C-alpha cells in the first residue's frame, strides 16, 4: 500500500475513543500517553495493543515554520517513507504541525485475546476506573498505526490551541 492509501485508510478508520483531558504545555515538554488498539491481521478475532508515549518538545534549535521532527514512529522501517517525504506529504494535504519534536516511544506491543470491541470496552472502563485523564485511547488500522497516532496528536494540538492563544495574550 502506498502512503496516500495508508493515510486515507487511517483518516477513515481512526477513532479517538478517549482523548487526553489536559492541554499541551506551551513552554515545557508534554508527554502524550496513549493506548492504540487494532484488529490483528495475523490472529483473526484478536486485538493488537500498542501502548506508548509521545514527548512533544521544543527543538534545541529554531526551525522554520511547519517543519516538525518525528522520531520513533518507524515510518522508514515499516512503511519505507523517509522523513522528508512524510513532511512534504502532510504539507501538500494541508496538515501542519508546529515545528516541534515529536518523539514516540512504544512501551508495550502485545496481543489481547478477543475482538476489538471487547478490548475497547475493557480499556475504556479501566481508564475510567483509574480516573486516568493523561492517557488517550485510539482505535485504528494495524498497518497504519503511525498515522492514527499522528491524528491523535493533531486532535490534542487543536484542542490546546485556544488555551495557547489565551496564555500568549496573558503574557504580553
Task: Summarize the structure in words.
- This protein is an alpha/beta fold and 172 residues long.
- The protein has one domain.
- Helices cover 38% and strands 26% of the residues.
- The chain contains five helices and six strands; from the N terminus they run αββββααβαβα.
- It has a six-stranded mixed sheet, with helices on both faces.
- A hairpin with a 7-residue loop joins strand 2 and strand 3.
- Helix 1 crosses helix 5.
- The chain is globular and about 45 Å long.
- The termini are far apart.
- The mean pLDDT is 87.
Task: List the main descriptive attributes of the protein structure presented here.
5 helices; globular; 6-stranded mixed β-sheet; alpha/beta
Computed Rg: 16 Å
- The strands making up the biggest β-sheet line up spatially as 1-6-2-3-5-4
Oligomer: single chain
Give the overall shape, derived from the CA principal axes.
Answer: globular
Count helical runs: 5
- Summed up, the domain count is 1
> Number of DSSP strands?
6
Summing up helix and strand content along with how strands pair, one would put the structural category as: alpha/beta
* Percentage of residues in strands: 25-35%
Average pLDDT score: 87
How can the largest sheet be summarized?
6 strands, mixed
* Unreliable residue runs: none
What sequence of helices (H) and strands (E) makes up the elements? Answer: HEEEEHHEHEH
Helical content, roughly? 25-40%
How far from one another are the termini? Answer: 48 Å
Amino acid at each position: 500500500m502506498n502512503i496516500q492509501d495508508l493515510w486515507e485508510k487511517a483518516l477513515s478508520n481512526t477513532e479517538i475513543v478517549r482523548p487526553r483531558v489536559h492541554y499541551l504545555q506551551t513552554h515545557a515538554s508534554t508527554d502524550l500517553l496513549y493506548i492504540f488498539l487494532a484488529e490483528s491481521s495475523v490472529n483473526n478475532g484478536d486485538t493488537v495493543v500498542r501502548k506508548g508515549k509521545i514527548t512533544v518538545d521544543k527543538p534545541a534549535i529554531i526551525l522554520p515554520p511547519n517543519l516538525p521532527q518525528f522520531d520513533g514512529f518507524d515510518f522508514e522501517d515499516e512503511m519505507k517513507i523517509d522523513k522528508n517525504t512524510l513532511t512534504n506529504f502532510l504539507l501538500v494535504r494541508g496538515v501542519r504541525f508546529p515545528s516541534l519534536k515529536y518523539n514516540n516511544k512504544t512501551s508495550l506491543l502485545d496481543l489481547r485475546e478477543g475482538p476489538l470491541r471487547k478490548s475497547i470496552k475493557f480499556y475504556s472502563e479501566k481508564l475510567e476506573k483509574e480516573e486516568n485523564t493523561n492517557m488517550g485511547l485510539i482505535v485504528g488500522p494495524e498497518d497504519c498505526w503511525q498515522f492514527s497516532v499522528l491524528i491523535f496528536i493533531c486532535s490534542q494540538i487543536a484542542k490546546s490551541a485556544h488555551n495557547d492563544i489565551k496564555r500568549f495574550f496573558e503574557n504580553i
